[in-house]
Amino acid sequence: MTAAQFRAHGRAVVDWVADYWERVESLPVRSSVGPGEVRAQLPAEPPETGEPFEALLADMDRIVVPGSTHWQHPGFLAYYPSGASGPSALAELLISGLGVQGMLWQTAPACTELEQLVLDWLAGLIGLPERFTFAGGGGGVVQDGASTAMLIALLAALQRASRGQVARAGVERGRYVVYTSAEANCGFEKATRITGLGSSAIRFVDTRADLSMDPTALRTAMAHDAAAGRTPALVMATIGTTSTGAIDPVALIGPVCREFDAWLHVDAAYAGVAAMCPELRWVNDGVADFADSYATNPHKWLLTALEFDACYLADRSALTDVLSVLPEYLRNSATESGAVVDYRDWQLPVGRRFRALKLWAVIRWYGASGLREHIRYSVSAAQQFAAWVEADDRFDVLAPHPLSVICFRLRAADDVNRALLDAVNATGRVLLSHTMVRGQFALRVAIGGCATRLEHVATAWQLLSEWADIVAGPN
């Protein structure tokens, strides 16, 4: 593809994306295709000769769009938002166009230093302590998601707990145990399997009435393991659990971790960015005093396209000691000087993309005030939705909702609530998800998409209200 061809097709692609964003509200949020239908429309064999780019765009309209669930639809209220804002999408083009491989400072100085800067910016915006910044001896790194952040935090914790033996001899079977809330993200269990600890090393700690981790139950579990000769290696607290948005009391969990010399990782994938707003900075209470690592996902609520997790470590040496492998072909004078960061030692792959450009573009376009406005609007809309639910005696709100996630249910059997969810989603106008709260089936709304406004939240409530009596049937 020549530069001239790239210009022509590039303009067509930007126009296509802009047109898609303008029309996405008119599409059903959830795709109606069945298993195998997308593949059946595609040729079984690749083309022998090249095809015009226009043919690809035509297939985007003919096959990909009808076969997609539209995460950028303003009525998408399921799971968590996926922020593909304009500046973030344009930055993706810049990333692809530059095509740099940022494994070493030497291979991409701008990639490395911009990432350090942008993550220090974000640390300041959400009130993280200086020890999580490069100036403070720690530092941040962009991972693909919170699950990977959990994994590298666990590797660093095991390296510290074993005094360096894990990097050399591996994980001693049956020795190390880790702890998290029963409400925590499932990625934590994956991390224990990958490291070789296995699922049996996890202690799922009971929760309090507000679904946050119980520090007393945590201490009891850790004391029991320590008395049995096992080593408590890591505790993962969550700021905004996947299911209900519960916020673990880091300020109370931290002292327990200190007592047993356990690493404290804080998974703030969803809610951490809320701390940009001074009135919501309480979500990070205790982090400055006790956390060893911390991760939050701008790709959820901060208008930054997938994949972007901002992962911070107070002691970066614990991670680089376990992950650094330096073959001769990567040796260079900058690395040997000790004056640079080589991010390949902060992650599982060797290669890495210039992801920091996305958050750089987002912060520069919206500014801190614009990002705060987005978060505040989402919280306000969620509180309005909760107020509608609470005012209707047919429904119950099932969990605290200080931010933008609401879990609720119709005062009816689980099968009726499932039918309500299916009926509302079948309209194509909104998409809600579900979870289980204290053993009860719950409908779940998560607000924060780029295009979602209060009128779309109101549409969701209107549909729920209209369908509630229909699915419940006569009394």
Q: Can you offer a commentary on this structure?
A:
It contains 17 helices and eleven strands. With 475 residues, it is α/β, with parallel strands linked by helices. The protein has two domains: 1-30 and 69-84 and 367-474, Aspartate Aminotransferase, domain 1; 100-353, Aspartate Aminotransferase, domain 2 (3-Layer(aba) Sandwich). The strands form two sheets. Strands 1-7-6-5-4-2-3 form a seven-stranded mixed sheet, sandwiched between helices. A four-stranded antiparallel sheet has the order 8-9-11-10. α6 crosses α8 and α6 (146-161) packs across α13. The mean pLDDT is 96.
Give the termini distance in whole angstroms. 67 Å
Uncertain segments are none
- DSSP, total strands: 11
Query: SSE string, helix = H, strand = E?
Result: HHHHHEHHEHEHEHEHEHEHHHEEHEEH
Assigned CATH architecture of the largest domain: 3-Layer(aba) Sandwich
CATH superfamily of the largest domain: Type I PLP-dependent aspartate aminotransferase-like (Major domain)
CATH C-level class of the largest domain is Alpha Beta
The Rg value, from CA coordinates, equals 24 Å
Mean pLDDT: 96
Q: Please give the domain count.
A: 2
Sheet with most strands: strand arrangement: 1-7-6-5-4-2-3
Number of helical elements: 17
**Strand residues, percent:** 5-15%
User: Outline, from the CA principal axes?
Assistant: globular
Structural class: alpha/beta
CATH fold descriptor of the largest domain: Aspartate Aminotransferase, domain 2
What helical percentage do the residues reach? 40-55%
Largest β-sheet summary: 7 strands, mixed
Family: Belongs to the group II decarboxylase family.
Keywords: Decarboxylase, Lyase, Pyridoxal phosphate
GO molecular function, one term: pyridoxal phosphate binding
Protein name: Aromatic-L-amino-acid decarboxylase
